[in-house]
Amino acid sequence: MLTAILKFLSPLAHPVCLIWLACLIGGVVAWRRKQKAGMFFLLGIALFISLVASRIPLYLMGRLEAPYAYVDLSKLEAGDAVILLGGGAGFSKTEPLGVNFNEASDRVFTALEILRLSKAPVLVLGGGGDPTDSQDLSEGSTVKRWLEKNLAAKVEMLELTASGSTRDEAVKCAALAKERGWKRIYLVTSGFHMRRAEATFHTAGVPVVPVACDFIRSGMPNKEGFSPLPWPPGFELFSLYAHEQAGWVVYRMRGWIKPEAVKQL
Q1: CATH label, 76-215+243-263, candidates 3.20.20.140, 3.40.50.620, 1.10.357.10, 3.40.30.10
Q2: pLDDT tens-digit series, residues 199-231
Q3: 139: Cβ–Cβ under 8 A, 6 or more apart, which residues?
């Protein structure tokens, strides 16, 4: 019984849930004191948190991911190259491996599996980096060094200079594809990011075939019983979803995603 109660109340350990609870209590106090403005303000914040910190963002993320799910890597046709977008790892001075893999590291291992299956002979490594540091500390260089130590097969690896956005990676890859005459390129990134990434690469003139991974909805629990308390992971998922939607609008406004590229999706 005690375990069930503690599990039920565990979300309240999250700062967002504490703010939600404080707003609820404050709203009730304001209502009792007949302070309508304060009541609506505080209860409005509580309602916003309830919607954001819920499973609604999980559903929205699932809609972004759905068109790219269930790819069988073994059935891919032979291609010219694999583009690994950044975001899955970073340089670390403290990690024994010299690289810190994060929650998006599925990108690295999915690209590695495509190479293991001999579906492409070249790996292009994207990613960002601190402009105050040397290029050797960029994500592309870091992952390349790790792969050189752990990849059994000899594969040509090309690292892009540190990029500040997906569009930067697309422009740099477009120059590579034109120089080498690539016609079929596998693009590896997270499922929720693939729609914007694919459209950006098509706009830049890169003939990519999407291979998505790091699917969030399939990895999140969605069969728990109802709880009136906020669901903390929902807040982070909402942030990711809002970032992708805002990025899509900005890219369209700047011409980095053309209407004809959207029609190809």
Answers
A1: 3.40.50.620
A2: 999 999 999 999 999 999 876 655 555 678 888
A3: 86, 87, 88, 89, 90, 91, 125, 126, 127, 128, 129, 162
